[in-house]
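ok new one. same drill as before - structure tokens go in, u give me an amino acid for every spot. 250 of them this time. try not to just spam alanines like last time pls lmao
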């Protein structure tokens, strides 16, 4: 990413201020090592106004030789990133396991102690950042020493840390969002996409909601045009990211 306009400069200046705030917050509470991603599905690092990774210029990690942002497969094997896919709220790493303010079976089932030891992490607070369009970012604050009072610290500061992480990642994503217009899908388009997401054919959907197969195709294609994507699968993906489709019963 290169700052080429006044708007880019303003945005990147804002990102730098927010990155410094994230870093300083960690130092203040005894979690001075920071790693951040604006999109855990992408290996691309977050860049500063100088075009260099924030991981090199602003944030410091425990092992200076572990240049995780240059490892394109890092996110696929890091348990901290895996956990961010299953928890939308901040959580913490304490005494060899992930914890939250309430029991979360999936989070607690993730094996993390060995990987954390390999990374040199003894304590951490992780703030996932769920953004529009289905993008997930994350900020990790860590320490190489155990923090006996980490659960208390988490209870007191998790909301503040989540806000700081969300502002940083959201501001960074401002420069990466697509230029697609605002989209309003109709009730029928949503119905068709929901059943398509459930694996139903056009004929199946037509029988279920009482319209013809060609009419189902029309609604799905129209939704795809509105969403500026090609094909049924991409329309389902984009509509899901915008909150039109979910896990509610049909």
């Amino acid at each position: 990413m290169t700052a080429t306009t006044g708007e880019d400069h303003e945005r990147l200046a804002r990102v730098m201020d927010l990155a410094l705030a994230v870093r300083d917050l960690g130092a203040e509470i005894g979690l001075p090592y920071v790693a951040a991603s604006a999109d855990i599905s992408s290996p691309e690092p977050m860049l500063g106004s100088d075009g260099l990774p924030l991981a090199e210029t602003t944030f410091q990690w425990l092992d200076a030789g572990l240049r995780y942002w240059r490892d394109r497969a890092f996110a696929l094997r890091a348990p901290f990133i895996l956990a961010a896919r299953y928890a939308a709220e901040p959580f913490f790493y304490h005494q060899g396991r992930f914890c939250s303010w309430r029991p979360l079976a999936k989070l607690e089932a993730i094996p993390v102690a060995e990987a954390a030891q390999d990374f040199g992490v003894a304590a951490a607070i992780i703030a996932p950042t769920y953004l529009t369009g289905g993008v997930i970012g994350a900020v990790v604050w860590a320490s190489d020493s155990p923090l006996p009072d980490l659960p208390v610290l988490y209870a007191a500061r998790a909301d503040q840390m989540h806000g700081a992480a969300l502002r940083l990642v959201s501001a960074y994503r401002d420069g990466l969002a697509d230029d697609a217009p605002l989209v309003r899908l109709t009730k029928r388009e949503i119905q068709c996409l929901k059943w398509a997401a459930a694996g139903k054919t056009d004929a199946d959907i037509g029988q279920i909601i009482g319209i013809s197969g060609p009419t189902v195709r029309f609604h799905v294609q129209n939704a795809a045009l509105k969403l500026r994507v090609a094909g049924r699968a991409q329309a389902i993906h984009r509509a899901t990211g915008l909150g039109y489709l979910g896990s509610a019963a049909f």
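The two ends are 42 Å apart (CA to CA). and btw The domain at 6-173 is CATH 3.30.450.80 (Beta-Lactamase).
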